[in-house]
Write a structure and sequence with these properties.
Low-confidence stretches of chain B: none
Radius of gyration of chain B: 23 Å
Number of helices of chain A: 8
Radius of gyration of chain A: 19 Å
Strand content of chain B: under 5%
Low-confidence stretches of chain A: 1-17
Largest sheet of chain B: none
Shape of chain A: globular
Mean pLDDT of chain B: 88
Structural class of chain B: mainly alpha
Chains: A alpha/beta (about 290), B mainly alpha (about 270), C alpha/beta (about 400)
Helix content of chain B: over 70%
Shape of chain B: flat
Helix content of chain A: 25-40%
Number of strands of chain B: 0
Number of domains of chain B: 2
Largest interface: B-C, 36 and 48 residues
CATH topology of the largest domain in chain B: MetI-like fold
Strand order of the largest sheet of chain A: 6-7-8-3-9-10
CATH class of one domain in chain A: Alpha Beta
Order of helices and strands of chain A: EEEHEEEHHHHEHEHEEH
Strand content of chain A: 15-25%
Order of helices and strands of chain B: HHHHHHHHH
Distance between the termini of chain A: 54 Å
Structural class of chain A: alpha/beta
Oligomer: heterotrimer
Number of helices of chain B: 9
Distance between the termini of chain B: 39 Å
Largest sheet of chain A: 6 strands, mixed
CATH architecture of the largest domain in chain B: Orthogonal Bundle
CATH topology of one domain in chain A: Rossmann fold
Number of strands of chain A: 10
């Protein structure tokens, strides 16, 4: 157990203090798989400048269940990333509530880990040290850190690069590090903001498959923002389709089929067509 | 003549080439100097042969007028320089990090910095030597020269930190204090190193100013004494020595900078 | 290939530009040609300096004054005029630190002569110097009593050799006076008047006019008794123009001025005929001594003379002073400007200010512009680049700079 383990009375803890601990998923062990873990209610983000105010997100509400991977897709600039940043606590919404279990989320914390589109890795640390960063923060002792990072290095295929510098890696490898860094913390929720957006199509597919493999071995709750409908269909349990700005939920689609899925399967083709045509209509409707 | 083709990837070739280029460059410089001074025919600008003779004599026999070896003078100047440098480092590092990190504080102190910074160190020299005595006074003149470039580089560096790193750290549970030690500090290192390099150059410029008013020896004072006495060849020899000292300290800084960069993986 | 050609072109351009600049500068600055150069044309003062000691020092530790001839092996100076013997206690001088106003000043040279007389080495004090008993140490470049007091907090200063009025200021501030230079170097040359040869060639007559007025001023100063108007005026001008530390009351300042005026001997030549033969001897000896102490890098031979006497013969020109005294010059019909560089705040040069402030120059149709400088080398600077026609400065800086700069040559 990590040094900074939070003692839970029931399921209450003060999330006004930034949460600093690993295995925050354990805080919600009492919530069974498939039950609601993350609640977003009436989320509203309005940007006010001197001249006018723009509503980016308009009274959005949805739920994320424990153990599921939910994708958020929508036309460009609709506010997908904004929603994610609100959940992570890096952005304060204008109004609305975000709750994990019975606890409100207002500031960033290790219970909501994040994977970034441009990797956000620390160039002055080795690959191993990047992955261990969160554990260091949580006060996990050295031997345990080492042990755990070894596991992830192997699982993500980074073992030979353990002591390399970030700049020596390709884009795909860098994002593996990013994913490992977030996952090793076992956060209650993992937020992924177009994590494969900066990679070429082939690398993208390979990383999607890696992610699926990881999900096979441990249950994770993931909110996944993406531009790619194919990616959403390949990875998600559900897809939230947003309208153009101000973002409102157009439809929530259940995606059947165990992972790993056959990308070319016909059932997905229909869904793909439906989502794409909706998005296209949103894009041209200016 | 040369049947060897230059191979860019061969380390030995690269080394030889850079040596040859440097030698030819310096030779051209000396020839140019010779031509210019001979044409000028001005006693205040001696030809290179006189300067090198003076330099040679200075190194071998020291200063017959003052009765000291050149190493005595270099030691005095070096001591002043290093004291000033360390002082600047010790003050600018924490202050720069603090001001870079804490916006309102930076705003508040900005007018103070903008007013004091443009004042040339040579203007401070008589005041510092008078108020702080001969040990601390000259070192403070060097300090003021190094302090400001170092400070501004550090403040700039802190502000330039990639927001993503801070965001990522927060989502991994970092507290404000941890953010500072684990992100702000290492991310600012390249700017600190750059600030040091710039500051070192300025520091040597301050040595002459510091020593004019202090009059307790040093290569800068020797330079001024030689100019006052009209012994221009000696004065130019002193300039060369100061230049070499400047190069040496910058060289050391470069070396340290390379090592630190490599260790921190910042030499992408 | 393009980049290499570009490099060569740039280098060639830089080379040509540098040579062009050199050619332009060829027509200015110090040249090695004949029509230029400097001469010494008159005296300003003799004597007028002294050695003061830090408070708490006892002068008899350093010099004892007696009427009888000292014993064998003693180091002493005999004053021919008063007959007194000044005995130097060498053991107490070794390992001590004195301040001087500058490496090129007469005071510095005199202290060097004393050190040499006592068989002591003469070495500059740097931070961290270990003081050895076979050496007399100096800090050069302390120009005033106030600076001396200030430097005492940073260095173990025993004493200070300096010009008037600083010696008198020290006396008023109750610092012990060890000895005056009148006592051990009677009649010694101090400040002289230098002139550019170009000016002499063009305006020799104007210079003679100037000297006639200057001579009158010096005579007035020397003839003024304590109760005369001239004396009162002199004291008033000196108090205004001589630099003294803040914190002295007006009475103290006047007291210091009067004492200083008493110690300085104002002159214009060796005698009242205008001869400068004694000055020539002084300059010859000074040049040789300073060449031996390495402050001058060109010997008389290097400059084309067979001896230092021959050098002094050319360097010192008394013809203008003689003309002025004999009256064989043409008075000015229209106003002429004469640019003079002088040392600011210096009581040695007060005759110049006395003549200025009492309007003596105006009467002779001379428009005298004085450019005050902080020290001798600075005065030399204006002389040698032509901005000043005349310079009032010490004999040592004039000799050192003129010889090093080859402003005097055969």
């Amino acid at each position: 157990m990590s040094k900074e383990e939070i003692v839970i009375e029931g399921d209450k803890y003060n999330s006004k203090d930034r949460v600093r601990a690993d295995h925050t998923d354990k805080l919600y062990a009492h919530i069974p798989e498939g039950e609601t873990l993350l609640t977003i209610k009436d989320l509203n983000v309005t940007y006010r400048t001197d001249e006018k105010s723009t509503v980016a997100v308009d009274d959005l509400s949805f739920e994320i269940k424990k153990g599921e991977l939910v994708s958020i897709v929508g036309p460009s600039g609709c506010g997908k990333s904004t929603i994610l940043r609100c959940i992570s606590g890096l952005l304060q919404p204008t109004s609305g509530t975000i709750m994990i279990g019975n606890n409100k989320c207002t500031t960033p914390g290790s219970d909501r880990g994040m994977v970034f589109q441009d990797f956000a890795l620390f160039p002055w640390r080795t690959v191993r040290k990047n992955i261990e960063f969160g554990l260091e923060i949580a006060g996990v002792p050295k031997e345990e850190r080492r042990e755990r990072s070894e596991k992830y290095l192997k699982a993500m295929g980074l073992f030979e690069f353990a002591d390399s510098r970030i700049h020596e890696l390709s884009g795909g490898m860098k994002q593996r590090v990013g994913i490992a860094r977030a996952m090793i913390m076992h956060p209650a929720v993992i937020l992924m903001d177009e994590p494969f957006g900066a990679l070429d199509a082939q690398t993208r597919n390979i990383l999607q498959e890696s992610l699926v493999k990881v999900l096979k071995s441990s249950s994770r709750t993931i909110v996944f923002v993406t531009h790619s409908v194919d990616e959403a269909l390949y990875l998600s349990d559900r897809i939230i389709v947003l309208s153009k700005r101000p973002a409102m939920i157009h439809k929530i689609i259940e995606v059947p089929g165990d992972r790993p899925r056959d990308r070319a399967a016909l059932e997905y083709a229909a869904m793909r067509k439906e989502i794409l045509s909706y998005l296209q209509s949103q894009n041209t409707m200016n | 003549m040369l049947s060897i083709r230059y191979d860019e990837n061969n380390r030995k070739h690269r080394l030889v080439r850079s040596v040859i280029v440097t030698v030819i460059s310096l030779m051209t410089f000396v020839i140019l100097w010779w031509v210019v001074t001979t044409v000028m025919n001005d006693r205040n600008f001696p030809t290179p042969d006189k300067v090198f003779e003076a330099l040679w004599n200075l190194i071998l026999y020291g200063d017959p007028i003052g009765g000291h070896s050149v190493w005595d003078y270099i030691a005095v100047s070096l001591k002043t320089f290093i004291t000033g440098f360390i002082l600047a480092l010790v003050v600018a590092l924490p202050l720069g990090l603090l001001l870079g990190y804490v916006g309102p504080l930076r705003e508040f102190t900005s007018p103070w910095i903008e007013i004091v910074r443009p004042i040339a160190p040579i203007a401070w020299a008589p005041i510092f030597v008078l108020s702080f005595g001969s040990q601390l006074g000259p070192a403070l003149v060097v300090f003021i020269g190094i302090f400001f470039p170092l400070l501004t580089n550090i403040i700039f560096g802190v502000q330039r930190i990639d927001q993503n790193w801070l965001d990522a750290s927060k989502t991994l549970g970092a507290s404000q204090v941890q953010l500072f030690y684990k992100i702000v500090l290492p991310a600012t290192v390249p700017y600190i190193l750059n600030g040091i390099k710039v500051g070192l150059g300025v520091g040597w410029m301050c040595i002459v100013a510091a020593e004019i008013y202090n009059k307790f020896g040093g290569i800068g004072q020797y330079l001024v004494d030689m100019v006052n006495g009209g012994l221009m060849a000696n004065a130019f020899a002193a300039i060369i020595i100061i230049a070499v000292l400047g190069l040496a300290t910058t060289g050391v800084a470069e070396y340290v900078s390379k090592i630190v960069s490599r260790r921190m993986g910042l030499d992408a | 290939m393009d980049k290499k050609i570009l490099t060569i072109v740039v280098v060639a351009v830089v080379v040509i530009a540098a040579i062009a600049v050199a050619v332009v500068m060829m027509n200015s600055g110090n040249k090695n040609t004949d029509a230029d150069g400097l001469s010494i044309v008159g005296r300003v003062n003799s004597e007028g300096s002294g050695i003061i000691l830090a408070q708490g020092e006892d002068s008899t530790d350093y010099i004892t004054v007696q009427e009888d001839m000292p014993g064998f092996g003693a180091v002493y100076i005999h004053n021919d005029v008063t007959g007194l013997y000044y005995v130097f206690n060498k053991e107490n001088w070794g390992g001590k630190l004195f301040a001087t106003p500058g490496a090129a000043t007469i005071q510095h040279v005199q202290l060097m002569q004393l050190a040499s007389m006592m068989g002591l080495k003469y070495v500059s004090y740097t931070d961290g110097t270990q003081m050895k008993s076979d050496t007399l140490y100096y800090i050069a470049g302390v120009p005033s009593f106030a600076e001396f007091v200030n430097k005492q907090s940073s260095a173990p200063l025993t004493g200070f050799i300096i010009w008037e009025a600083q010696v008198s200021v020290a006396m008023v501030e109750e610092y012990p006076i060890l000895v005056l230079t009148n006592e051990i170097f009677e009649g010694h040359t101090c400040c002289i008047i230098g002139a550019s040869n170009e000016y002499l060639e063009k305006e020799g007559n104007t210079l003679a006019v100037f000297f006639s007025v200057y001579k009158d001023a010096v005579d007035k100063i020397n003839n003024a008794d304590r109760f005369s108007d001239d004396y009162a005026k002199l004291v008033e001008i000196a108090t205004k123009r001589v630099s003294m530390p803040d914190g002295m009351t007006d009475e103290e300042k006047i007291e210091a001025i009067k004492s200083a005026l008493n110690n300085v001997t104002y002159v214009y030549a060796d005698d009242n005929k205008g001869s400068l033969n004694l000055l020539k001897k002084d300059i010859a000896k000074l040049a040789e001594d300073l060449y031996n102490s390495k402050q001058i890098s060109m010997s008389a031979k290097d400059l084309g003379f067979n001896s230092y006497d021959e050098l002094a013969q050319k360097f010192v020109d008394d013809s203008y002073m003689k003309k002025a005294i004999a009256g064989t010059f043409t008075p000015l019909s229209e106003k002429k400007t004469i640019n003079i560089a002088a040392i600011s705040g210096d009581i040695h040069q007060i005759a110049l200010w006395f003549a200025m402030d009492t309007g003596m120059f105006e009467d002779a149709k001379l428009d005298v512009k004085v450019y005050p400088q902080s020290n001798g080398p600075a005065v030399y600077g204006l002389l040698s680049n032509g901005e000043a026609d005349l310079g009032f400065l010490g004999a040592p800086p004039m000799t050192i700079r003129s010889m090093n700069g080859e402003d005097i040559h055969a």
